[in-house]
Amino acid sequence: MNTTGLNTFEIVGGGSPGTVHTLIKYSGSLNGTLANFTISGTTGILSNNATTKTISLIVQSSIRTPTNVVWVGNSSINDWDTVNRTNWLNAGTGLLDYFVTGDNALFNNAGAAHPIVNLVGNNAPATVTVGATGNCTFGGSGAISGSGSLLKTNSGTLTITNVNTFSGGITIAGGVCRSRGP
User: Fold this and answer.
1) For the stretch 15-44, what's the b/e string if a residue is b when 16 or more beta carbons lie within 10 angstroms of its beta carbon?
2) Residues 5, 124: Cα–Cα separation, whole Å
3) Mind listing the pLDDT tens digit for each residue in 1-20?
4) SS3 for 109?
5) Rounded Cα distance, 132 and 152, in Å
6) Mean pLDDT, range 138-144, rounded to an integer
7) What CA–CA distances, in Å, run from 109 to 38, 75, 84, 101, 112?
8) pLDDT at residue 84 greater than cutoff 90
9) CA distance 16 to 81
10) Judging by beta carbons within 10 Å of its beta carbon (0-12, 13-18, 19+), is residue 128 exposed, middle or buried?
11) What does the alpha-carbon distance between residue 137 and residue 114 come to, in Å, rounded to a whole number?
């Protein structure tokens, strides 16, 4: 198997810490290294077993199930990524949390101090609702991906400057939605 560049495994769930999940079974030899791969959606490490010719994920910690999260941002880094930065408020616990694949993401006035959202990697929410009265910008090298949808409500303006791949459609029920992508 030939690997070049950076390739991402998008994982939903993951299992208990220490569990091993085979991701790829290849024939021949691996031309490349595990450095050609990253993991999104769980915390773990990758392992290459040259004898069984498999690349596996070894889960390092449990990931919570998808829930409702509210963007609050951060005073220094406003990245929307998967299972990394705690720029979200978990609506169920009221505590800072990270984004998990399948979350319902809400952008309301709670994140008004940090309205420029830098997408990193592919982030696959069940839904995205932008209901802030102020303006909000989605940009960066990452994307909103998956089958989720985007709902724009309230009076603010959402400006989208990145390329997204989600397939659930956009509904504008208030305010303005601008796209300045390529």
Assistant:
1) eeeeeeeeebeeeeebeeeeeebebbbbbb
2) 22
3) 899 898 888 776 667 788 89
4) helix
5) 9
6) 96
7) 33, 15, 23, 23, 5
8) no
9) 22
10) buried
11) 10
Query: Rounded CA gap, 65 and 73, in Å?
Result: 21
In terms of phi and psi (left: phi > 0; alpha: psi -120 to 50; beta: otherwise), the region of 102 is left
Name the burial class of residue 127, with classes exposed (0-12), middle (13-18) and buried (19+) by CB atoms within 10 angstroms of its CB: middle
pLDDT of residue 134: 96
Phi and psi angles of residue 88, each rounded to the nearest 5 degrees, phi first: -125, 155
Residue type, 64: R
The answer to whether 121 and 144 are in contact (CB under 8 A) is: no
**CA–CA separation, 131 vs 151, rounded Å?**
8
- pLDDT, tens only, 28-78: 999 999 999 988 767 789 999 999 999 999 988 778 889 999 999 999 999
Identity of the amino acid at 150: L
Q: Which amino acid is at 130?
A: V
pTM for this structure? Answer: 0.73
